[in-house]
Amino acid sequence: GDDADDRDADDLSVAVVSDDPAPGSTVTVEVTDADGEPVEGASVEVEGESVGTTDADGRITVTLPTDNDEAEIEVEDGEREGELEIEFADAEDADDADDADDADDGADDDADDEDGDDSDGDDADEDDDEDDDEDDDVEDDDEEDADDEEGDE
To answer: In the predicted model, is pLDDT for residue 10 greater than 70?
Structure first.
């Protein structure tokens, strides 16, 4: 039982105290000991890369990775250590929101395009066809009349 107690006392608490973490964002992390006191000079690693040490308030500002669904922050201060795993729940929400926006935009664009093409394109073609037919008829009539007259004479 003593070992477990020792480990608990040696554990550092790591918490994000700034905005909600998102991939690629910069967050402030606070490191405190078992008594809730800030730990100064604790070495901090993000995804296994050292990013510095905590200040007098037990805080350090770190930039989270962009290519993962989560980030692991590890802190060591002598024998004491702690870690924080950040899962980007926000990342999924953001994607959903984007998808919704895309869907809306797509529908709007398609509707506009179809309306535009249908009214302009088809109507114009129909008018042209009718005009052509009428012109042809008129010309044909003239020629026939001319032939008739010549025949009569």
So the answer is: yes
